[in-house]
Design brief:
Elements lengths: L8 H35 L13
């Protein structure tokens, strides 16, 4: 088997795990930012709507 070189050892596993956690963090934060951006754009889409008032 030519593709098996004995592995990268513990250092390879640690680096691979760190990059996988970083990848998922970037994906999740990007998705949250996209949803917040789209929700904010939808709120500002109706400039003619009257503001809601709270009566006590």
């Amino acid at each position: 088997m030519m593709w098996y070189d004995g592995g990268g050892g513990w250092g390879g596993w640690i680096v691979m795990t760190a990059f996988m956690v970083l990848l998922w963090a970037v994906l999740i934060l990007g998705l949250v930012a996209l949803v917040r951006y789209l929700a904010g754009a939808r709120r500002h889409q109706q400039p003619g709507s009257p503001p809601t008032t709270v009566t006590r």
